[in-house]
Amino acid sequence: MEITEAQYQRIEHCLPRQRGNVSLTNLQVLNAILYVAEHGCKWRGLPKRFGRWHTIYTRMNRWSRSGVLDRVFTELQREQIVRVRIEAVSLDSTVVKVHPDGTGALKKTDHSRLENPVADGLPRFIWLPRMLEQP
C-alpha cells in the first residue's frame, strides 16, 4: 500500500512544506506510515528502504499532534487513493512482578508469645461450645 508520485500530487496540499536540509521527502514518510499501518509492524521493524525509523517516527508524531495526519487520511479517503479506515487501539500489557512478601501470603514464621497475652494481641475470649439441654 504505497502511493505514487501522481497520487501524492493530489494530496500534497495537506502536508506541511519541507524546509531546510531534510533526508526524507514527505512522500517517503507517508509511504512508511502506510507500511506500518498495513503490516502492523513496530517502527524499528521498518525496512531499510524507507530510511531511518526514528526520523519517520518523529515526523509522524509531529504530524499527529498538529492534526496533519488526520487531514492527510481524510484526503486520501476523499480522493479514493487509499480505502482503509485507520483506528487507534491501545492495549496495555504491562507486567509488574511483586516480591513474594507483597502478595498477601501468610508468613512462614512462628508466632512468639509474650508473657502478657493482652499485649500479645491474642484473642481475649475462648469459644467453648456447651450443650444447653441434656438429652
Describe the structure.
- There is one protein chain.
- This protein is mainly alpha-helical and 135 residues long.
- It has a domain at 5-78.
- Helix content is 37%, strand content 0%.
- The protein has 5 helices and no strands.
- Helix 2 crosses helix 3.
- The radius of gyration is 33 Å and the shape is elongated.
- The model has no long low-confidence stretch (mean pLDDT 78).
How are the secondary structure elements laid out?
Elements: H1 5-11, H2 26-39, H3 53-66, H4 68-78, H5 117-120
Characteristic terms for this protein:
mainly alpha; 5 helices; 135 residues; 0% strand
Q: Mind telling me the C-alpha Rg?
A: 33 Å
Quantity of strands, as a count: 0
Globular, elongated, flat, extended or rod-shaped: what is the shape?
Answer: elongated
Q: Estimate what percentage of residues fall within beta strands.
A: under 5%
Which ranges are low-confidence, i.e. pLDDT below 50, for 5 or more consecutive residues?
none
Order of helices and strands: HHHHH
How many H/I helical runs? 5
SS-based structural class? mainly alpha
| Averaged pLDDT | 78
| Helical percentage | 25-40%
Sheet having the most strands: none
Terminal residue distance: 89 Å
